[in-house]
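Trying the structure run again after the queue cleared.
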Amino acid sequence: MNWLTTQSIPKTREKRRLSDAEMRAWLADVTARGGWAGGLASWFGSSMLETSPFNTPWRRDKGALWDLAPHLISLLWVALGPVTSVTADGGPADVSHLILHHEGGASSTVTVSQNGGEAAAEFEAYLWSDRGRSVAPRMTSDPVPPLSTALTELVANIRSGRTEHPCDARFGRDVGRVVAEAQRQIDRRRLG
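Done. Tokens:
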């Protein structure tokens, strides 16, 4: 399924940084090449620092699993195929580790935390196979260009009457189901 060469990537706040032109080009390239055995994605944030404007009650309650993991799951879903199952466990604070199994047989891992501190705050992702690795570009810190692209695409869809998009609400629902199952597993392990 290589819809990426003719379609755009997500248009919601959760995916704004995946809308960046370099990320789109990388995703188009890796999906066109195919044959990836797996992938790795991690995002260590610093939003739990007391000085962070992103240290909000919602983030403190939901943690990185609900704030950061949907971005990475979306990225790996597009690059490796739909997620068919997840195995999850938690670490200290809000650390979450996920193993994703993808349609077609690839597997990937996701690790996220909002308590990484400024020195560890970083996003990284790559795919791997017997041909080597393909490293995702760094995400942009300027949200304006991707949000502008997202708004332009949304307006174009509205004007054309188009109601479907590869990364529409159904895609968000499917990613949300993966996160909810991961949360269920983490909670079950923590409660013993």
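Strands lie at 38-44, 83-90, 96-102, 107-113, 122-129, 132-135. Worth checking whether this holds up in the mutant runs.
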